[in-house]
Amino acid sequence: MANPFAHEQFDVCAEAEPERIALKLEGGEELNYGDLLRRVRCFASYMQSLSAHVGTLIVSWMDRSPDQLVAMLGTLEAGATHVPLDPASPLTRVAEMVDALDPPIVITDREPAGRPAWRDRIVVTVEEILGRGDPRAWQRPALSPDHLAYVIHTSGSTGSPKRVAMSHLGLSRLVQWQVKRGGEPSLTTLQFSPVCFDVTFQEVFSTLCTGGTLVLLRDRTRRDPKRLVGALDEMGVERLFLPYVALQQLARVIMEERFAPRDLRHIITAGERLVVTSAIANLFRLLPKARLDNHYGPTEAHLVTSWKLPRDPSDWPELPPIGTAVDGVTTHILDRALRPVADQEPGELYVGGIGVALGYLGAPRLTAERFLPDPCADSPGGRMYATGDVVQRLPGGVLAFLGRSDEQIKVRGFRVEPAEVERAIADHRGVRAVAVGLRELAPGVHALMAYVVGDRPTLDVASLTEHLRARLPDYMIPHRFVPLDSLPLTGTGKVDRHALSTIPLPSTGVDAIAVAGAALVELVMSVWKRVLGHDDFDPRSDFFDVGGDSLLAAWVVSELGQRVGREVALTTFLDDSSPEGIARALTRRGDETGGEHRSELVTLKVGPPHSPLILVHALGGEVLAYRELAHRIRARRRVLGLRWLARDDAGPRLGLPELAATHARTLVTLQPTGSFALAGWSFGGVVAFEIAQQLTRQGREVAFLGLLDANPLRDPVTGLPTEDPRLYDALCEVVATFDQHSDSAAARLALSKKPLVAGLLGNTVDETVGVSHLRKYLEAARRGVWAAMHYRPEAYPGRVDLFQAGSTPPSRQELLLDDLRAAVAGELRCHTVEGDHHTMLREPSVTQLASAVDLALRGGA
Q: Hey, where are the domains in the chain?
């Protein structure tokens, strides 16, 4: 890549292969290079018609989208300077930054009601621009490598954001290194970084300058590690740029789910110090051909060093080095007097070379303080940037990161100056003094803390948080506020940061399950507040609607378990994921089958977490009968078993619609959007049939409903109508016999004398199961048969796939099929498989059954 301008290299790729896919969006939309280039030049021509020229600042305040990329590329194509702002920033902060920049043009996707009242500026959307611009009118600007390419805002130690100004030479240097030496080119790459983050330029240009494909995901998917894993696999993502925290979350989910995206081959981490946890090491053991690179570089110099970790994770140190300088960069490790330090001695890192930014826009004094003359520069006027990072040079020349020389910290990959957060907090009318710092709440979990001296004994956290949301982006709002009578000071009168880090954090004061009612709800809410980092919820809020995801839910139940003195199951979130619902669940004691009836999902086969195949329990509520089938299904889907945990008291019998309704609620909690794939064997098929009915009535799509030798009107084994009482009577007799035995062997002997019942249960009871559990199991089966006896199904409107046992006598097959046709208003497809009602789930018949299910899932005949 010899072109000095990154956007022109994109032009070359687009003109050479216009039909090649440039962008892939979640949901299936794609955009090829030719269409993207046409939009970019349409945008650029309209900017030029508005008198945008070299050096014109064009602000982009937009969410991640194809239009946002068009604005980035189109601004550079016009010769102007791209200034992305955080789309999550509050209006007040955006207005202040725009006023400080004074740009003539602002590009946004916000409706007029959601914008500040800007005057004397052109405010326009990309959609409006594409309707007005003419790509044929675009003219290539006369650019110099020293002209300004982009401006990135970072947190400022003076209390105001700093504006880092990067030249085209600096951007081109970065992209050229990434393309030539940074790994395999032309990869399908996820655009993960925030659009206002400098790594975005690395993601975008290293992909689009080599003919690769850039993947854009919805923010909900990008932020939820479990959804993200499935999307990476579905979209064929090969390369990721991730900060350490996001990599750790991704690794934990992949380890928990035992499923890794199949195409992933290169991960680059930057923005935070890399710590090799067991989850990260195990992730790369699952991906033996994947590569992990550790990048280092402040926004003022972008990429400075790189270190490729060895192939074997066993050889990885817990704190990997940051590596050696990349092309176009020089590094100096100096003491306070700007003298070089000896190898393996700590010193501050200074960065020189062509990748150093031009300085801070509109801040000459601050620029002079941090961008110093470089005594080792190749040409006169060369400068070096004082990073504030302490490093040491190890044997072999690689650099190790040791920490910060100042008080700057990083949160979620973003650089945060405590002074800026402190200024915003100090502006609150109830605050007399404040100090902000980072604190480790749990191993690997760091949170931004605010230590506040208020003018009242009680700190109004809700008012303070609301005040900050109008002034700071989310990542700069502290996770917790610690009230103090006064700030600890050093002998010189400065805030004692070390003393702050040892101050005990406020406790909720709730340590036992005996505390109930409002106090227990308050306990749950206090944990949510700490985990979510905000308190914008009430006792009835759904956890997943206020920013929670599966990883954060795991954190919540772990902390709650410590507080209440017993394990809290993650399934607590299934029934009612509000603080009130979780508090009610915490008050319930007993084993898994006590209390209320409930359903439970278990993983039978790992796979992508989206759109799983749900196999509904047979009689007795267990799913062990599906084990062989699940492992032989080849479809790239996770296979889940839907269990039934019936309470063990004598309570009222539960009808099949009520049973299915409980399961439907569980499934909707698991999968709030998208279609469902359901199947069930024998009684499980009848339950699946009614679940599908209820989901359909709720407006949810059931893309696949499979009945594995199941029929809602007639028993597949005997051919008897389901309302015939003989099966129920046989089960009642066995349960009565069981009650006469306290010995497991004797109880099993009694069961073995009732082959009809043993066959009905599908031989799913493991020999290690105790007699008490088996008794509950049989009671659940008896209730299931009672529910089937009294079930009167409506005609199902969708498509049904019947997998009928081939050993069933032909006359009974036809009888069963005729009855099923009467219960299915939609298409009914019949697949005959080997074996009888029971053996179809075991070898050798189960392999053919799995193949038939695979074919039906793909929509085949």
A: 17-23+31-143, 417-501, 518-587, 598-722+792-857
